[in-house]
Design a protein that fits this description.
Blueprint: E1 8-14, H1 18-29, E2 34-38, H2 45-49, H3 52-70, H4 86-110, E3 114-117, E4 120-124, E5 127-130, E6 133-142, E7 146-148, E8 161-162, H5 164-167, E9 176-180, H6 184-195, E10 199-203, H7 215-227, E11 231-233, E12 237-242, E13 245-250, E14 253-258, E15 261-264, E16 268-270, H8 277-280, E17 303-305, H9 316-330, E18 344-346, E19 351-356, H10 359-364, E20 369-375, H11 380-385, E21 391-397, E22 403-410, H12 413-425, H13 430-434, H14 445-454
């Protein structure tokens, strides 16, 4: 921003990740004068720069390698020697990131948003400082995201003990990689390096990996990942790392895992470091998240917070919806977010996706439910594509047939979950989903069949 430009805005957004930049874009669409502050030299936040996007690029490329090595021959394709060019592999990931962050920058420019590079801190509730610049606005949105959680006894060194930020850019394939934490990030990056030749062990403190999913889904998912070569150790508490060996304990049992690299992916924490929230009068809750009301307003007048810094799932798409709603509320419109219907996905192969209430959670809450399942092994498109692992599960209220949730284990589960989310958004029933015409042959027919199975009416299963 040039010195001749006004430093007064209708809206200042701090943080240009998916929540922040989408909030800024929507506000600009609605005619507000917007400043977007980002400490990185590129827009897009963790998601585009070191998170969702680069990890998906690596997953996609590594899937091609695994397919070429293990499945090409069965399709009648003779490839001869299949080898990894790690430099080219990583360059493609970097090219994807460059393209996307450049695209966000172009969109910001087209919307006449003032993009300011630097770390922002509050001077007062309506004023922030970036370097020696002071900016004021009637409304300020905090969208500073999250950072990887560090284990106090195993701090990140960026070389051996690493976060996901480092694990998207190893300069060689580690012989032995130990992943601490069996959530989405650990399983995804563990899968990438396993496909590239690492001996990968996932060490999870809880009794199961992918802890938010139903037991039956996790049992099948675990079996598939083990078949792919991942070693999975659950119920194991990590105790330390020294001399190339990670130690853990399971009850009285002492465990040790040799490791060239240790990826610690035990969660993320809200990132509010250096913001000077006390100067604005913004309070935190007991988990150090920013306190907000039902409209994402903080305890300070005119200050809002969205995405990973507030309660709720730390997911880019949730942050985007928060950002849109806040921009609309600020502009006097009727913003809306249905936080009960935020889908979650683990982007392994096969993927796992969920929305709403799982079967286990429904039963634990004493809800009477009917559950419909359909295996991809009985789906024509899945058989044609060699993607028969997994199944779709629909959970519906036993009395009203309203869909309460769904979980999918299978190829492209992340895409398939969307139609269930859509039916749930409008309060749809399992019968509504079952009577929706699905093209044949598609994987999505399994969603229809699972919905039919809720009333024991599946056509392609006994």
């Amino acid at each position: 921003m040039s010195s001749s430009e006004s430093s007064s805005f209708d809206l200042i957004v701090i943080g240009a990740g998916p929540g922040g930049y989408v909030c800024a874009f929507r506000a600009a669409q609605l005619g507000l004068k917007v400043a977007l502050i980002e400490k990185r030299s590129t827009l897009g936040g963790t998601c585009l720069n070191v998170g969702c996007i680069p990890s998906k690029a690596l997953l996609h490329s590594s899937e091609h390698l695994a397919w070429a090595k293990h499945h090409a021959a069965e399709h009648g394709i003779k490839l001869g020697s299949v080898e990894l060019d790690l430099a080219a592999f990583l360059k493609r990931k970097d090219d994807v990131v460059t393209k996307l962050v450049g695209g966000v920058s172009q969109l910001a420019k087209a919307r006449k948003i003032s993009v300011i590079t630097g770390a922002a801190s509050f001077v007062a509730a309506n004023t922030v400082a970036v370097g020696d610049q002071k900016l004021t606005a009637k409304n300020i949105v905090i969208a500073t995201g999250s950072a990887p959680v560090e284990l106090p006894f195993m701090k990140f060194d960026g070389k051996t003990v690493v976060s996901s930020d480092h694990a998207i850019a190893f300069d060689s394939v580690p012989k032995k990689l130990v992943v601490v934490g069996g959530g989405a990030i650990g399983l995804e990056l563990g899968s990438v390096w396993s496909r590239l030749g690492s001996e990968v062990t996932v060490v999870e403190f809880l009794p199961k990996i992918a802890a938010g999913y139903d037991d039956d889904i996790v049992r099948n998912f675990t079996r598939i990942l083990q078949k792919q070569g991942l070693k999975i150790e659950v119920g194991a508490k990590v105790t330390g790392f020294a001399n190339g060996v990670l130690t853990a304990e399971r009850g009285t049992e002492k465990l040790s895992f040799p490791a060239d690299k240790v990826l610690v992916s035990v969660g993320r924490r809200p990132f509010t470091d250096g913001l000077g929230l006390d100067k604005a009068g913004v309070q935190l809750d007991e988990k150090k998240r920013i306190k907000v009301d039902a409209h994402l307003k903080t305890t300070a007048p005119g200050v809002w917070a969205i995405g990973d810094v507030v309660a709720g799932p730390m997911l880019a798409h949730k942050a985007e919806e928060d950002g849109v709603a806040v921009a609309e509320w600020i502009a006097g419109k009727a913003g809306h977010v249905n936080w009960d219907l935020v889908p979650a996905i683990v982007y392994t192969n096969p993927e796992v996706a969920s929305v709403g209430l799982g079967e286990d959670a429904a039963k634990a809450a004493g809800r009477a439910v009917n559950v419909g399942k359909f295996n991809f092994a009985a789906n024509g498109r899945a058989i044609s594509a060699g993607a028969t692992d997994g199944y779709v599960k629909i959970i519906a209220d036993a009395k009203t047939d309203k869909i309460l949730g769904a979980q999918i284990l299978g190829h492209n589960a992340g895409e398939l979950i969307s139609e269930v989310v859509t039916h749930m958004e409008y309060g749809g029933s399992a019968e509504d989903l079952a009577r929706t015409i699905h093209a044949h042959p598609t994987m999505s027919e399994s969603v229809k069949e699972a919905a039919l199975a809720v009333s024991k009416s599946a056509l392609h299963a006994i």
